[in-house]
């Protein structure tokens, strides 16, 4: 799988690298393939692109693609992994911010929603991979990584609620903590799925974040969490603005594969 072939040498020469070892070359080519897959998904559709389309854009054979990915679904799963890898650092940062538990809960969910709205094709891929059986055709290691990634948001939301319990902001048992976190996720997923039959992209009609903040606050109040005081909408928007630059960064460089 890592032996140098004619395509390896062409990529080697085209990138002007004279000392790239096999492992580095393999990783470089895989990123090029993923960039081609993302470009192809954007032009053909998240479900409609073919491996042959990706190979043509990446300037390699279909056989080379299968040297990196077990299937088209495995390739889709790899794109989802790249799309979500930047959010872990952000989640950790939010938990350290001097805002209330309710505000952290709301910001975490809305920041992830903003990430999905930022790129509708990646959002479609993420929903398809994480909420259907497509992930079952991914490589074993990628399936494990996807399961962990899919649990990450729930675990962070539960951590915020557990902290609220510890400091006396609310009285919830373990089951109630899990249920409240999942209800928050379900609300955001429901908004994302409110779209046409042809796409799973986030619906533009429901992009009023102030309304979404209020809906999440109602959920938290029903769970017994104290409502944030003062200009909490403004504080949430201020925190969300700190994440905007991160969201605007490219997942993959598509230079040379368009």
UniProtKB/TrEMBL annotation:
A molecular-function term among this protein's GO annotations: transcription cis-regulatory region binding
Annotated ranges, domain HTH tetR-type: 27-87
Keyword Transcription: yes
Domain of life: Bacteria
One matching Pfam family: TetR_N
DNA-binding region, residue range(s): 50-69
Gene3D superfamilies: Tetracycline Repressor, domain 2 (1.10.357.10)
The keyword Transcription regulation is annotated on this UniProt entry: yes
Keywords, sorted A to Z: DNA-binding, Transcription, Transcription regulation
Protein name in the entry: TetR/AcrR family transcriptional regulator
Species whose genome carries this gene: Ferrimonas lipolytica
């Amino acid at each position: 799988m890592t032996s140098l072939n004619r395509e390896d040498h062409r990529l080697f020469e085209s990138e002007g690298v004279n000392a790239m070892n096999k492992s580095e070359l393999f990783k470089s080519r895989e990123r090029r393939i993923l960039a081609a897959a993302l470009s192809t998904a954007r032009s053909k559709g998240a479900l409609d692109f073919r491996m042959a389309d990706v190979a043509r854009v990446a300037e390699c054979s279909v056989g080379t693609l299968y040297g990196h990915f077990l299937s088209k679904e495995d390739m889709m799963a790899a794109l989802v992994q790249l799309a979500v890898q930047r959010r872990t650092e952000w989640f950790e940062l939010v938990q350290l911010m001097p805002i209330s538990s309710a505000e952290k809960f709301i910001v975490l969910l809305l920041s992830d929603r903003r990430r999905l709205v930022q790129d509708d094709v990646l959002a479609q891929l993420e929903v398809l991979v994480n909420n259907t059986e497509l992930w079952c055709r991914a490589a074993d290691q990628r399936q494990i990584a996807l399961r962990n990634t899919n649990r990450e948001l729930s675990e962070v939301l539960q951590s915020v609620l557990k902290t609220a319990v510890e400091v006396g902001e609310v009285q919830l048992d373990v089951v109630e903590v899990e249920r409240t976190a999942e209800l928050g996720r379900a609300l955001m997923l429901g908004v994302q799925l409110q779209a046409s039959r042809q796409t799973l992209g986030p619906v533009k009609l429901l992009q009023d974040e102030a309304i979404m903040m209020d809906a999440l606050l109602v959920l938290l109040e029903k769970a017994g969490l104290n409502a944030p005081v003062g200009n909490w909408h403004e504080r949430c928007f201020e925190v969300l603005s700190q994440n905007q630059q991160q969201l605007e960064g490219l997942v993959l460089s598509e230079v040379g594969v368009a």
